[in-house]
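Predict the holo structure. Ligand: glycyl-adenosine-5'-phosphate.
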Amino acid sequence: MANQEDIFKKVISHAKEYGYIFQSSEIYDGLSAVYDYGQNGVELKKNIREYWWQAMVQLNDNIVGIDAAIFMHPTTWKASGHVDAFNDPLIDNKDSKKRYRADVLVEDHVAKIEAKIEKEVKKAAKRFGDSFDKQQFLETNPRVLDYQAKADGILKRLGKSLENEDLADVKALIEELGIVCPVSGSKNWTDVKQFNLMFGTKLGATADSAMDLYLRPETAQGIFVNFLNVQKTGRMKIPFGIAQTGKAFRNEIVARQFIFRMREFEQMEMQYFIKPGTQKEWYDTWKEKRLKWHLSLGLGQDNYRFHDHEKLAHYADAAADIEFRFPFGFKELEGIHSRTDFDLGSHEKYSNKKLQYFDPEENKSYVPYVLETSIGLDRMFLAVFSSALQEEELENNTTRTVLKIPAVLAPTKAAILPLLKRDGLPEVAHKIVEELKWEFNVVYDEKDAVGRRYRRQDAVGTPFCITVDHQTLEDETVTIRHRDTMEQQRVKVDAVKDIISKEVDMRYWLQRI
Ligand code: GAP
């Protein structure tokens, strides 16, 4: 089996080869951690965004959407705490001159310990066969328990040092663990320093009158500053939510792992405004709801886990990540944060405007608490894309590369293929394209033998291929080939639309939530 690094390289090259993701400004040698979405990528991204929007806004009558500007008044970021506290601890290796996030170096070390646990599990599963009880093994095997205790201990200490801003201890931890620079292999580290992640820019024509601005590092603040506008104009009653998708910008130090950590990315966030004191209940509810949303896509239950935060951000009283098994291991995909009244309270203070809700049941006004769900659209893209990419051994000793993107998210739903380029078959195929294009994205393809065209559509992730052959001319039937099973059915041309609709319609997928 290919190792993690090879699989990840395959994901990146496949994304480029099939028009999903390109390096930004590639002809000028690219821009680090900035990416462009190609003709198929833009469709997949749009479908993921829509799947989120329908689940959050359309299906919840107490959640509405907004689209706030990327530029915001600079005081926003003072009030939100980003000017003072949106920092990453960084460390340089004196030999390679490379810069790293100190916490990521430690977390990568822990990931290696966790990989050892997975290896033990795999070995034991092989040894014990069907009688293997994974849970029991994890809870009783001495070697696994030892690894787990080590990993937990390291993360706990890291969390504590970061919370206490004890950067000297973070460095001490790196040294004690014997972590080496991946480039130079040396342990010659500088001290750990804080680095603010916001990008600055200027608004205004002349140097003296220009105002210093930041590119927003999260979309959430656009929701907080509009809380009262939406509440009043929408006559919203607590609990209610405001959702938004849009670009965010962070000057990430560790800008690797493809679209996992980008400097310009897109978030899909929802702030749920609640009565103070109910935050625990809503925290649990939204953790469950969001996990269900993920599971509805069928990427595999084993690919998700929760990670409860030891170190809480400056605004939170509880926080958890939904982690996904990316090609480089389990990593954060989405955050669920109980943000208390920190943001609204702080904006009240800095703006001198009341940001309160009059609760008719309580007959009093208060600053609502907030429960936030925040997911990176690009990260979700990577989760879908990387888990979809598979190499399959076929019966005739050949392999096929197939991108098993959930049909509801696939960029193109069907390819229409005339078996031959003559005998009137292309004309019939074009007619089918003309019919279906009103319903969903379809493509026409007549180049190469039909087997090669199937492979091409498998690799690009098209869930259905509709083939027009000579029998079509006689009885108005076509074959419909299913990407995942490669099964082919002969159906009436008139039935094609319904067969595809049933499998790509968001309603059928969202009903699983
Ligand atoms: N408003 C809360 C907030 O922004 P966060 O944990 O910093 O919380 C939320 O970010 C989500 O945004 C993450 O779970 C991740 O999916 C995505 N995200 C954060 N930084 C990112 C980056 N540099 N590149 C891509 N996605 C990122």
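The chain has a mean pLDDT of 95. The CA atoms of residues 227 and 355 lie 8 Å apart.
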